[in-house]
């Protein structure tokens, strides 16, 4: 488990929260998770994710994500706003006045990796403040299995490579 200090106040701001243990080395789990090309494998409502900036992944790297939200497809730009190799990363996106911030923390734990996820939804205008609870509920529904699917994808990758 991550300590309160390591979670840095997430418990007060997090609208979404999950945690999972993966029996794989931290470096392997982090490398798979941080490569957002893998997002459609771990988030069933994400249709595609394409890197649109040059260079290695780090602060400022952007991906274009196409996602099914309700009855329509939406496209948003995800940007890495924090990146600490093999420890944590935070991605931010804004669509139609709603900002979403997803933070992933990784820690070696019992011969594997503990992954802690928190998500925050911020309304950027008055109208979106009324819609914000619906967006949170939709994201909880759509992204609820992302860490269990991350674990499954990493495990299946190993079986495929054997």
UniProtKB/TrEMBL annotation:
Superkingdom: Bacteria
Protein name (record): SRPBCC family protein
Species assigned in the record: Bacillus songklensis
């Amino acid at each position: 488990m991550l300590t309160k200090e390591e979670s840095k106040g997430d418990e007060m701001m997090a609208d979404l929260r999950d945690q999972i243990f993966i029996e794989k080395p931290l470096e392997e789990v982090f490398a798979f998770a941080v490569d957002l090309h893998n997002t459609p494998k771990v988030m069933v409502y994400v249709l595609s994710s394409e890197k649109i900036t040059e260079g290695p992944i780090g602060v400022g790297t952007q991906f274009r994500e196409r996602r099914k939200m309700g009855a329509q497809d939406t496209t948003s730009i995800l940007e890495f706003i924090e990146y600490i190799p093999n420890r944590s990363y935070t991605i931010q996106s804004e669509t139609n006045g709603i900002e979403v911030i997803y933070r992933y923390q990784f820690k070696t734990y019992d011969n594997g990796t503990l992954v802690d996820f928190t998500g925050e939804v911020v309304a950027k205008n008055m109208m979106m403040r009324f819609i914000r609870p619906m967006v949170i509920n939709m994201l909880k529904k759509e992204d609820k299995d992302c860490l269990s699917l991350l674990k499954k994808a990493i495990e299946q990758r190993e079986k495929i490579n054997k």
